[in-house]
Structures are given as C-alpha cells and as structure tokens.
Amino acid sequence: MNLSIRLKAIVDLIDEKASVADIGTDHGYIPIYLMENKLASKVIASDINKGPIDIAIKNLKEHNITLGVETRLGPGLKTLSKGEVDVAIIAGMGGNLIASILEDSIDIAKEFNYIILQPAQHQEVLRKYLYESGFKIITEKVVFDSDKYYHTMKVTKGNDTQYENEVHYYTGRGELNTRSNDFKGYINEKIKSMEKIIKYTAKSEDKSRYEYLSNLIKEFKEVKREYDL
Ligand SMILES: C[S@@+](CC[C@H](N)C(=O)[O-])C[C@H]1O[C@@H](n2cnc3c(N)ncnc32)[C@H](O)[C@@H]1O
Description:
Blueprint: H1 5-11, E1 18-23, H2 29-36, E2 40-47, H3 50-62, E3 69-73, E4 87-91, H4 95-104, H5 106-109, E5 114-118, H6 123-132, E6 135-145, E7 148-157, H7 166-171, H8 181-203, H9 207-226
Parallel strand pairs: 1-2, 1-4, 2-3, 4-5
Antiparallel strand pairs: 5-7, 6-7
Helix pairs in contact: 4-6, 8-9
Bound molecules: S-adenosylmethionine.
C-alpha cells in the first residue's frame, strides 16, 4: 500500500517495531501499511463509528492482512487498557477533539512510549493543551498534501519548555531552524490567509478578534524575518 504524503509523515515517526493503536482508523490504511512493511508487532485499529470499522475490515481483507490487526469499536482511547500498546496514533481530527480524547483517558495517554498526533486543523489548540497537560513534543514536522499543510507531532509525557509567543503554538518550535520548503510554505500561506481575514474582521465590530489577529500576523512576520523563511 502506498500512503499519502501526510500519512507517510505519521508512519515515518515510528522508530521501532512497536505495538500500535490507530485511533480513528477510518479506512485502516495505517494498520495495513504498518503490517505490510513489518513496522509493527501488532495494531489495534479503533474507531467510534461502525461504518469506518467495516471499511477498515474490508480493506484489511483486500490486502490479505489476516493476522496482527484487531479492530475495535468505541470512543478515543477507551477501547484500550492501560499499557496495552506502546504507541498511539491519533490523526485526521481537529485539535480540540484530539485534546479531549487525550484528556478523557489521561492515565492511558501517559503510559504510551509516545503518541503521534496529526490534527486536521487547530494545531495551536492541541499544542496549548499538550503544554498545559504534562506532555512534551519530541519532534514535529509540517508537510504539504492535497492543498493543505499538516502538522505532525511525536509526543510523550513530560514537561515542555514554555512557549515564548502565541505564534509558536501555531508553528511549533521543532521546525524553525530546519527551514524546510513545506514549513516555509506554511508560514507564508498563513500570513496571506490571515491578512485576507483581517480585512473582514476590521469591518465587523469584533475588536478583540481583530487585535488577536493583528498581533498574530505581526508575530508570524517576525518569525519569517528572524528565521529567513
Ligand atoms: C477524517 S477520519 C481520519 C482517518 C485517519 N486517521 C486519517 O488521518 O486519515 C476521522 C475518523 O475518526 C473517527 N472518530 C471521530 N471521533 C472519534 C473518537 N472520539 N474516537 C475514535 N474515533 C473517532 C471517525 O469516525 C473517522 O473515521
């Protein structure tokens, strides 16, 4: 199975033959890839909805994966017991939902060797939650896939260093010095899109939103200048 750029960014962060839970597995592509490439000893493919689980089962069959993957139906990490797997993956949901999945099963979340997170949006909400809730980001990477930038983070329990500015919850700190094309692209596109939004915000009466956005644009531009992005 060939994975999309963003899903490949997730599996690339698995650095040993681990037991893995893929939470919100949907199509089951990650479990299939992990087993086909012998990157995991076992995978639990879990989803809150029956439809996706049925699709994952069908896709697993089509790829002749008969051993090593177990499907489970239920919310978040509730389908797992403490210490059952080494690694969890939670991807393709919003940053708010990922944060609440971690918070709802905090004991289980803190037992993983590490967790790989890839929010579909609101990565800043997730980074704030992680910082405030005793998780630290070990590594992070931005990739561009199908017209969108995705932030992938490998996290574990621990205390992270304080974030200097609001902008860093959006950009993360791990890529500031790598100056990868996708990271640069994210910074420049975000500045452009915020400059469009602020025009409408200025016309409305939402003063605090306007101030938040204009400060954020300023901070993004400082990051762009400081790191030559
Ligand atoms: C957009 S898909 C993402 C699939 C895959 N993880 C990816 O990144 O391509 C989101 C999946 O998460 C599932 N989901 C949503 N909320 C969930 C929750 N609280 N617990 C487990 N799965 C959830 C949905 O049913 C859906 O299959």
